[in-house]
Amino acid sequence: MDLESIRTKLLVDKADLEARLARTHKHIYQKEEAVSANFSEQIKQTENDDLVLALDQEIQEEMMQIKLALNKIESGDYLSCSHCGRPIGLPRLEAIPATSLCIDCADDPPP
Ligand SMILES: [Zn+2]
Q1: Cα 18 to middle of ligand 1, angstroms
Q2: Nearest Cα to Cα of residue 66 among 33, 20, 17, 3
Q3: On the CB side of 98, how many CA atoms lie within 13 Å of its CA?
Q4: In tens digits, what is the pLDDT along the chain, a chain of 111 residues?
Q5: How far is the CA of 109 from the centre of ligand 1 (A)?
Q6: Å from CA of 71 to ligand 1 middle
């Protein structure tokens, strides 16, 4: 896989995350649809809301990593570790395209 294929994969992942965010946002912000007149259903709905909020948070973090990776490709820094500056290595980037750390730094994350 070359850099251009990795970039394409990141863009596909980003589009997928955007679609998922659109769904969680619809759930979070369109309350009139979600609120039920039935009390026990309302409680379920609230629990569900917490799950959706957590999911939304998770997706946004993933999205941020992908955007960072795309920025690094643009600026030519994609192949180097953000922490130590050594090459991350293509096999690792192919496996985890959104990573910005080499395997050593990922194993021993900076404080
Ligand atoms: Zn490193």
Answers
A1: 29
A2: 17
A3: 14
A4: 689 999 999 999 999 999 999 999 888 877 655 455 676 777 777 778 889 999 999 999 999 999 999 999 999 999 999 999 999 999 999 999 999 999 999 987 555
A5: 9
A6: 18
Cross-strand pairs, 87: 80
Q: For residue 80, report the distance from its CA to the centre of ligand 1, in Å.
A: 8
Q: What is the pTM of this model?
A: 0.79
Residues 6+ apart with CB under 8 A from 93: 6, 78, 79, 99
Phi, psi of 4 (to 5 degrees): -65, -40
How far is the centre of ligand 1, averaged over its atoms, from the C-alpha of 16 (Å)?
28
DSSP conformation letters of 13-31: HHHHHHHHHHHHHHHHH-H
State residue 80 phi and psi, 5-degree precision. Answer: -105, 145
